[in-house]
Write a structure and sequence with these properties.
The chain is of the alpha+beta class. It is built from four helices and two strands, in the order αβαααβ. A two-stranded antiparallel sheet has the order 1-2.
Length: about 80
């Protein structure tokens, strides 16, 4: 049986991202060993690698291999 790819509704994702209180966002700078690894950053802040998408979307990152470098500034929503 063919599998169907289902994409989440972008409106709901945008609503969620816009609902994050800017006062509950932590500013961090990527240290050595965490470059290109949104999964590790997610684990450090959320105790799960599954929120790497949140970090990437909140920071408008589409390619972690080009956009997550040592010293780069990230905004981490505290949820």
């Amino acid at each position: 049986k063919d599998k169907k790819i289902v994409r989440p509704e972008s409106n709901k994702i945008n609503e969620f991202l816009n609902s994050i209180n800017p006062e509950k966002v932590e500013v961090v700078y990527i240290p050595a060993g965490y470059e290109h690894r949104p999964d590790l950053i997610s684990f450090d802040f959320y105790n799960t690698v599954k929120n790497d998408w949140l970090i990437m979307m909140y920071n408008n990152i589409s390619d972690p291999f080009q956009q997550l470098n040592v010293g780069d500034r990230l905004l981490i929503p505290i949820i």
